[in-house]
Amino acid sequence: MKTGTHWACATFLLAIGLSGVAGATTVWDESVDGDLSTDPNAPTPVQFQAGSNIITGTMGGPGNVGDYITFTFGPGQGLTGLVLLEFASQMGDERGFHGINEGPTSFIPSPATQDNFLGGNHLNAFEAGTDVLPGLATTPLVGAGFAIPLGEGTYSYLIQQTASDPTSYSLEFQVVPVPAAVWLFGSALGLLGWLRRVSGR
Predict the structure, then answer these.
(1) Is the pLDDT of residue 175 over 80?
(2) d(CA 12, CA 9)
(3) pLDDT for residue 41
(4) Cα separation, 120 vs 123, whole angstroms
């Protein structure tokens, strides 16, 4: 097989590996999938895949102070980033709260429940476009913090408006790949290195 063909095959494998890791998927859009749970005792289950997982919703109106989800990471999975894509209120109160705790249920934030969160912080509109996970992990307003990536286990996540102000939001949960994707990505990189040695490049 010619060297050019070797490189074409390796590049193809690398592209497959990268697409498995970096693909963006909307896992929940309230305008399509219905309202997320507002009950801390029964969060909406969502299933994340390797790469970018987007959740879009609204909150803050009457009867909908906040939204709750729950998710599970298996072996080799973990949360490496949480990007706030949008946080826009109708009446100008552009500050909310979000938090992560262990387990399939969550809590209404209060002085009595604050220690039940791994991490919880205020959320502000000016943070749109930034990764807010490090703040939850290392400088939380409530909770003791946690290591990144947030690894194997079941967790619940809360996002809420701190006032009765209807607010739209969009979040990108960045998840490290399952072992199969890591193996494919690593194999592609290894093949590229081998071809570079063989071709003398």
Answers:
(1) yes
(2) 5
(3) 98
(4) 9
Look at residue 19 and tell me if it is in a domain. Answer: no
Whether residue 67 contacts residue 36, with contact meaning beta carbons closer than 8 Å, is answered with: yes
CA 29, CA 112: separation in Å to the nearest integer?
A: 32
Q: Residue 172's Cα: distance from chain center in Å?
A: 5
Rounded Cα–Cα distance for residues 142 and 147 (Å): 15
Non-local (6+) Cβ contacts of 190 within 8 A are none
Token pair 């387990």: residue: 103
C-beta atoms surrounding 136 within 10 Å: 27
Residue that is written with structure tokens 């690398």 in the block? 14
31 has a pLDDT exceeding 90: yes
The C-alpha atoms of residue 71 and residue 50 are separated, in whole angstroms, by 13
The rounded distance, in Å, linking the Cα atoms of 75 and 79 is 12
Please state the domain count of the chain.
Answer: 1
CATH code of 104's domain: 2.60.120
Q: Count the Cβ atoms, other than its own, within 10 Å of residue 57.
A: 22
What is the spatial distance between Cα 19 and Cα 8, in angstroms, rounded to a whole number? 16
Give the span between the Cα atoms of 65 and 87, in whole angstroms: 14
Candidates 38, 36, 41, 47; CA nearest to 105 is: 41
Which residue segment(s) compose the domain that 55 sits in? 24-177
> In the prediction, which pLDDT does 65 show?
87
